[in-house]
Amino acid sequence: MTWTRSRYLLLGERRYRDRAGRTVRMAYSARSAALFALDDATAGRLAGGDSGAIAAIGPELLAELAARHAVVDAAEDELAAVLGAYREGSDAPGSRKITIMPTSYCNMACDYCGQEHFKAPVDNARVERVIRRVEGVLADPATDEVVVTWFGGEPLLALRVVREMTARFTAAAGRHGKRYHARLVTNGSLLTRRTLRELHDELCVRTLEVTIDGPEAVHDRRRLKRNGRGAFHRTVASLAEAVREGTVPQLRIGIRVNVDEENEDTVPDLLVDLACLGLASPQVEIHPMPVHSWGNDVSAVELGARRYAAREAEWLRLARSLGLGFPTMPGAVKPTTCAATSRHREILDPSGRVFACSEHPLVPGAEAGGVVATVDELTGAAPRPAGAFDDWYEQVGDGRQQCGRCPLLPVCGGSCPKLWREGHVPCPSVKFNWAERLDAAALDLGYRPVGAV
Ligand code: SF4
Ligand code: SF4
User: Fold this and answer.
1) Helices 124-139 and 159-176: crossing angle, nearest 10°?
2) HSE (side-chain half, CA atoms, 13 Å) at 305
């Protein structure tokens, strides 16, 4: 067999001294989401890409590199293999992910949000239909696990509905011997010590994604509640208390920071505040995200992707120096790009309509065209009908999308087919700042840059 460098291997340029005094360079194999150091000579052989030089790497190390897919058989069509894995992951019936919007209302009115919120009474018949759908999926012998994402509007405004549905889901999961857990995406304003405990202890929420847009004054200006009050203090205090007291040990907390030109300069202050207020914990991760278009016009505040990535690399270094969780490189290969690329994922809106893409419901202009069915039409565990983006891997495979040429495809999947279609480039920041991220990882490992004193 002739070994060749994988097209999905990233190699850092900078040299470091490891603890044993060896000169190393950092490497990341996107096909296995593995981050590792390579001695300088091996890195040099791989960087050159010459198969003779690679063959000289020694069988033991070559076997290790092959296990990480850092080197591959020259005869392998790697793009086909990666797309094959995506198709398999998208079609796998065992893992079902269902996003439920228990309410169409939100108690905030953020300028950059593309959703249109409105109050509507709870429709009990609709709630029952959604419950039956999830019960049907749990009853299917092919299902191993169901993960429900509570999404909004603001889902905590409908906590009673979340309770009622969860009781039925966990009962069905117990009856059929299936795994069940939930994620919750929230603006954080209704979080209290008691709610956090209930989410964790009774409602099986294992991942919480809370949006905090800046230090108190900035967050409370950008994410003002409709009653005119800010929510920063209560949100952060509730989270910090739960983390400090260890009351929600199985909960992973993601803090999403929506960044645009208006708040980008305040991100460092926010990081310092979050660390000082007690959120430097292995339970918590910071997730900054550039604000992107939902079809409304935010082009004035959209940051150039490269400029954003450069700033984000600074925040990454600061966050890690403060002990805040901020992932360097993606830690897992994706099974599918997103909800819109797997018919085993679906979004159920408050009126019982089924969507494939999470940015269609409640979004004026996109909503009507995004409905793929009503929940009544989904029988048993049948996958949802195809949506607008279920042909994504064909587009990547035949060259219509540049993602087919990208070394990050196995961990990115193309990010957001909807944004590509609308003419935006949705590449995550790692595309532009992976070298800085590899440097941060090297420092975490205790490596010293060569030349540093
Ligand atoms: S297409 Fe984009 S917006 Fe729609 S579910 Fe996928 S990632 Fe989300
Ligand atoms: S979205 Fe960007 S980073 Fe992701 S696979 Fe496509 S080109 Fe690569």
Assistant:
1) 20
2) 11
Q: Quick: pLDDT tens for 19-52.
A: 999 999 999 999 999 999 999 999 999 998 888 8
Residue identifier of the C-alpha nearest atom 2 of ligand 2: 427
Tokens standing for 116? 């249109």
Q: Which ranges in 8-93 belong to alpha helices (H)?
A: 40-48, 51-55, 59-67, 78-91
pLDDT more than 70, % of the chain: 93
Q: Which ligand is nearest to the CA of 305?
A: 2
Residue 367's pLDDT is what? 67
Write out residues with Cβ below 6 Å of ligand 2. 402-403, 406, 408-409, 412, 414-415, 426-428, 431
Average pLDDT value over all residues in the chain: 92
Question: Which ligand 1 atom sits closest to the C-alpha of 426?
Answer: 2
Query: What secondary structure letter does DSSP report for 7?
Result: T
* Alpha carbon distance 231, 221 (integer Å): 10
- The pTM score is 0.91
Taking the C-alpha atoms of residue 155 and residue 209, their distance in angstroms, rounded to an integer, is: 12
CATH architecture for residues 91-321 = Alpha-Beta Barrel (3.20)
Residues near 328 by beta carbon (within 8 Å), at least 6 away in sequence = 35, 316, 437, 438, 440, 441, 444
Where exactly are the structural domains of the chain? 3-76+431-449, 91-321
Query: Pocket residues for ligand 1 (CB within 6 Å)?
Result: 338-340, 357-359, 389, 416-418
Count of residues making up the chain: 453
Query: By the 8 A CB rule, do 354 and 384 touch?
Result: yes
